[in-house]
Each structure stands twice: as structure tokens, then as C-alpha cells.
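About this split. The held-out portion is used to measure sequence recovery: a designer receives only the C-alpha cells and must propose an amino acid at every position. Recovery is the fraction of positions where the proposal matches the reference. Here is one held-out target exactly as it appears in the evaluation file.
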């Protein structure tokens, strides 16, 4: 349903609400009015790509809920309480918030000091009820469009140390697992244009995808990108490779930048499935990604290549975490293998995951166009992909340590108590 812009009340800030990226939003309200405004906003076209859940119970319910569930991209909490009550509950929420989660507080007291204190503690915005659907749209839109807001999406590039070592298989399973486990929207960019298998792996036959984006860099924006995506599951979409040989795929170093940039601006997690090549654009994507995963099988050529890759990446990204090392096809019958610990030691990298060779399991999954987690959610391999999805999204270590966006403050408080 679209409304005439002129019908709506004039606001002090009468800027047009902006389209909101593919984020997951969960709200814990205390009044039916605020819940209704959020529900109404969630039906608006500008929020058509978001996943919204509106629940009641306010801050206490949120704190309890996220004690055992991952936090979405945006948590909205309403409180009718006084400033000190809001701040008290907020510390509880800080304890259970994952990194990258934004918090929007809707209160009933117009208090500048409270506002300042909330922002200081890492809350993204504090607004005062009553609010209507346009206030909701504008407030959330501004969180993702203001010039100083960080880019939304985390990009994770996967590359194999050798062709066929399982890099795409791992990338697709991890992407699926992130979408499933964290209810987070994930985009897979299959950049192996000639031979990419993401379409096959997800049992899709897309007619459009990565090539269309590449060939029209001047057209690429969120609307155009949306049209090129194929939906694989509730939270997972694919920018597919043509996998046709009717043309050759030589590209300049920067050719893929506009596509990945728009993807990262609109989707919280972007998985980049790179071909086993060493071209300017592959090197560039590896250098620019937030996370790099090297997939290797434990043999000599893989070791040499993985070592070279790790060295190049360490030099090109001196201020980033080193790449993650994932073994796949481990324990292939009759194949002499290098010990995983020795392989990892030569690269000076910890082992992020080790996936056993299982021709039946992976063969069945490939033939049926299913992920391992869809075939058998309880299989140890599905569990390994789940664990890896926590690592590459930065959630696993954090959950264990219960670290949060508000952590610096909490540490300060603890230090003060201790002294
Ligand atoms: N752990 C495994 N056990 C058995 N087969 C595997 C395993 N991992 C991947 N495969 C199979 O290996 C083949 C190559 O995998 P792929 O992911 O396309 O490699 P890459 O992207 O590195 O070239 C595929 O047929 C895939 O199903
Ligand atoms: Mg591949």
C-alpha cells in the first residue's frame, strides 16, 4: 500500500525515508501504540527486504531472550521506565548483545542527559514516543544511511589452495549455515563465472546474476542488484555465475568492486566464492574482504599454494587478522596426507575447521542440490559448518567471552569496582 506523501504529517525533519537494507530486526515493546507503529512500518515498501519480529515485554524480555539466542542486526527496545531504570536494564542487554548488533531505544522521557548517556554506552539512537510509522522508517533508515554509519555487510572471501579442493562447497555450506543459524541475510556471490556451481548446489537455474552486474557497473544499485538475485532459502540469496562458455571472462582489477560494494551496503553478510585463479581482480577481492578463508586439502601442492597465499595476504593486509585455514576432503582413502598440525604449523595458522572426506555424503548433497545441513542437520559435518559460520562472522569467540558492543564501558566499571 502506498500513501500519498502529502497526506502525511509534516515533521521537523521532513526528509523522505530511505529504503532499509536486508536486515533482521527484533523489537520488544511495552505499549501497543509503539508495537503498532513498528508493525505498520514493517509493511511499508521501504522495509520490504527486512525481517521484522515485534514482541512485547520491553527491555527485561529482550535481556532474557538474548541470553540464549543470537541478536539480530537491529534490536529495538521500548521502555516506559525512568532514566535510571532504562540504564540499568541496558547493562543487562549489553552483556548478551553480539558485535555488529545495533540497539535502538524508544523511551517515554524526553531527557537530554539520558540521550547522551545512552549514546555514550553504544546505543545507536534514542527516540521518544509517541511515534508513527514514518518516524520509525526515518529513524531506522538513518541508522544505515548516515554518512558516518559503518558499512553494513561483512564480506567473507573463500579461495581454494588448489582447484577442486572443496572451496565452493565449504563457502556454500557456511553461507547457508550463517543464514540458518543466525537468521541473518546472506548473499553468495559466485565469481567463478565460467564454471561456478552455486546454482547447481542450491538446485537453482538462474538466468541472471553476477555477469549482468559486472557488465553494467553504472546501473548497479540496490534495486538492480535485487533483480539479479536468486532466492535460495528464507535468508539466503545468490548472485549466480552464468557458467556458460559463450564468452571469455577477462576482467580488470577493479571490475567487481561496484557489485561487492552495493552488496555489502545492503546485505549483512556477503560470501564471495572465488575461483582458483591468480588474476588482478581475484587478488583485489582477497585483499579487500573482511575475512579470507583458505580451503585446502592436506597434500604437498595444497601446502605450497596455501603457504604462498597466506604469505601474500599477510603482507597485503598487515592490519587485519590472518586468513582462516580450513581443511576439506581430509582422510581420503589411500591418499597419503600431510598431518594437519604440521600443515597448519608451516603456515603459522590455527585450524579453523577440518571437514572429513565423505564421497557419499557430499555426492548425495551435490546430486540433490542440498546443503549438508538440509540433508542431515545432526551430522557432525553439518555441526562443523555451523561452528565455522560462528567463527567467520566473528560471533563464536565473542559469545564465549560474552563480549559486547558495550564492552569497553563494562570493563571500565569492573576495573573501577576491583580497584
Ligand atoms: N569433504 C568432502 N568429501 C567428499 N567430496 C567433497 C568434499 N568436499 C567437496 N567435495 C566434492 O569435491 C568436488 C569439488 O568441490 P568444489 O567445492 O567445487 O571445489 P573448488 O571450489 O575448490 O574447486 C565437488 O564434487 C564436491 O562435491
Ligand atoms: Mg570453486
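Reference sequence for scoring:
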Amino acid at each position: 500500500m502506498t500513501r500519498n506523501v502529502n497526506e502525511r504529517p509534516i515533521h521537523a525533519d521532513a526528509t523522505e525515508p530511505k529504503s532499509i537494507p536486508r536486515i533482521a530486526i527484533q523489537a520488544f515493546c511495552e505499549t501497543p501504540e509503539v508495537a503498532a507503529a513498528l508493525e505498520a512500518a514493517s509493511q511499508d515498501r521501504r522495509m520490504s527486504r527486512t525481517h521484522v519480529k515485534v514482541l512485547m515485554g520491553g527491555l527485561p524480555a529482550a535481556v532474557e531472550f538474548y541470553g540464549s539466542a543470537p541478536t539480530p542486526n537491529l534490536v529495538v527496545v521500548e521502555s516506559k521506565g525512568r532514566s535510571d531504570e532504562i540504564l540499568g536494564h541496558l547493562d543487562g542487554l549489553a552483556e548478551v548483545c553480539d558485535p555488529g548488533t545495533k540497539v535502538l531505544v524508544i523511551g517515554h522521557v524526553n531527557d537530554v542527559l539520558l540521550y547522551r548517556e545512552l549514546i555514550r554506552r553504544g546505543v545507536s539512537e534514542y527516540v521518544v514516543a509517541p511515534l508513527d510509522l514514518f518516524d520509525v522508517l526515518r529513524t531506522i533508515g538513518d541508522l544505515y544511511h548516515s554518512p558516518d554509519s559503518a558499512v553494513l555487510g561483512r564480506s567473507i572471501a573463500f579461495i581454494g589452495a588448489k582447484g577442486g579442493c572443496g572451496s565452493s562447497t565449504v563457502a556454500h555450506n557456511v553461507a547457508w549455515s550463517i543464514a540458518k543459524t543466525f537468521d541473518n541475510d546472506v548473499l553468495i556471490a559466485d565469481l567463478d563465472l565460467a564454471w561456478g556451481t552455486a546454482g547447481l548446489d542450491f538446485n537453482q537455474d538462474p538466468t541472471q546474476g553476477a555477469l549482468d552486474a559486472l557488465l553494467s557497473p553504472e546501473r548497479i544499485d540496490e534495486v538492480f542488484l535485487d533483480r539479479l538475485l536468486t532466492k535460495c532459502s528464507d535468508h539466503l540469496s545468490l548472485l549466480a555465475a552464468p557458467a556458460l562458455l559463450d564468452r571469455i571472462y577477462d576482467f580488470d582489477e577493479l571490475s567487481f568492486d561496484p557489485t561487492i560494494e552495493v552488496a555489502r551496503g545492503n546485505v549483512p553478510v556477503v560470501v564471495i566464492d572465488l575461483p582458483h585463479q591468480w588474476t588482478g581482480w581475484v587478488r583485489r577481492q582477497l585483499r579487500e574482504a573482511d575475512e579470507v578463508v583458505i580451503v585446502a586439502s592436506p597434500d604437498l601442492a595444497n601446502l605450497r599454494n596455501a603457504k604462498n597465499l597466506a604469505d601474500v595476504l599477510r603482507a597485503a593486509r598487515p592490519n587485519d587478522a590472518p586468513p582462516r585455514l580450513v581443511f576439506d576432503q581430509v582422510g581420503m582413502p589411500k591418499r597419503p596426507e600431510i598431518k594437519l598440525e604440521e600443515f597448519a604449523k608451516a603456515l603459522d595458522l590455527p585450524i579453523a575447521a577440518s571437514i572429513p572426506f565423505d564421497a557419499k555424503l557430499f555426492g548425495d548433497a551435490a546430486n540433490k542440490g542440498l546443503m549438508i545441513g538440509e540433508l542431515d542437520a545432526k551430522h557432525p559435518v553439518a555441526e562443523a559448518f555451523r561452528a565455522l559460520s560462528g567463527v567467520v562472522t566473528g560471533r563464536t569467540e565473542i559469545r564465549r567471552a560474552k563480549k559486547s558492543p558495550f564492552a569497553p564501558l563494562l570493563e571500565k566499571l569492573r576495573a573501577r569496582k576491583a580497584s
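Annotator remark: Residues 19-145 form a domain with the Rossmann fold fold (CATH 3.40.50.2300).
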